[in-house]
Predict the 3D structure of the following.
Amino acid sequence: MNNISEKEIRKVFEKAAALLPGTKYVVCKLENDIDYSGYYQSMGYNYAVLFYFPLDENVWEDYTEERMAVLQTRCFPDAGRLGNYVKELCDEAGIPYHIPSIPCDHMTPPYISPLSVKAIGVKAGAGWIGRSDLLITYEYGPKITTAGAVFYADDFTVGDPVTDNHCGNCHRCVDACPFHNIYGNAWHAGVTRDELVDYHNCSVCRYNNSTSKSTDIPGVGRKMACCGCMMACPVGIKNVLKVIEENRERRQYA
Ligand code: SF4
Ligand code: SF4
């Protein structure tokens, strides 16, 4: 027990979410069913939170890896800034909060991260897993950057888990993959990553076929930014564009 109420914690999370336009957050209970994750209740944290915000530029029209790479050099540090800001606010408020490390080895199976942001997103109700194996948020589709963490609360209201996909008859991501790594299967609770995509081949193909010939993308730690499946998804585009426009106006009048 730390006697910090849900209201106080939400106040902290909402203050943090105001840092970057369009940021949302969802919370789920941290139990032994966060797929591909190693952070369990026994480690002193009993909830997981996922903050997510939309891409800040329309790179899906006239898409090139180079444009995506430049965008990622902004978005990834932004996610780090957001994560550190939440942590700082939580420390001040006495809320136990921990940001698990993000793996940077994209070439060696089994590709398990300490805390799967996709699994939190689904369990906490942010969205579903697409045919592409990306988290497809109701709000912004897959065109997001995320910051996940674990925290302790005596009690906290969690989101409703999503158990089925809303892809319908869409196969755009399947058609968009230049390396045919997406099988086309539809996700529902229990369907594994390996039934949806050839994850290893995705990494290998992207590395070997990247048109970003330069050195590693700063802050990304890899040479490529394929993202064809992410760019092709129609879900949430209107909302992403709305936040991009709000950002533009804010910058104009700043
Ligand atoms: S990131 Fe690129 S290679 Fe990997 S599944 Fe998506 S479209 Fe295919
Ligand atoms: S592109 Fe279509 S099939 Fe692929 S994740 Fe998005 S909605 Fe689902």
Q: What stands out?
A: The first helix runs from residue 6 to 17. The helical segments are 6-17, 65-93, 117-123, 172-176, 199-209, 228-232, 237-252. The chain has seven helices and six strands.
